[in-house]
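Q: Okay, next protein. This is Inner membrane protein YbaN from Bacteroides stercoris ATCC 43183. I've checked the sequence twice, so it should be correct. Can you predict the 3D structure?
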Amino acid sequence: MYFCDMKVLYILFGTLSLALGIIGIFLPLLPTTPFLLLTAALYVRSSPRLYNRLLHHKYLGSYIRNFRENKAIPLRAKIISVSLIWITILNCIFFIVPYWWLKAVLLLIAAGTSYHILSFKTLK
């Protein structure tokens, strides 16, 4: 019984992650690839059929295959991701967050996330 419940949760969260990834294609604030990678991880644990459909999808499959095979991120995606992270974080620091310690935490998050994104090879 527990195993079936987990499969349903994985499918549910995988589908939610897929929706966010698709929205991320059109909204530059949401990253596409991490959501699609999360979807693939959740689907592989719950439904081989959904996982295969995702990997062989005409448009979305390439995001996952490129990352899985090359461990690389396209230069355009790196530039957009890091730029949006810093624009968003700096906006919060200067205009929204009143506490200095929270501003410091946001700076650390931005730096760590940027480092993580830039640590991957660039897909050419």
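A: Here is a summary of the prediction. The CA atoms of residues 21 and 32 lie 4 Å apart. The chain is about 80% helix and 5% strand.
Q: Noted. On to the next one.
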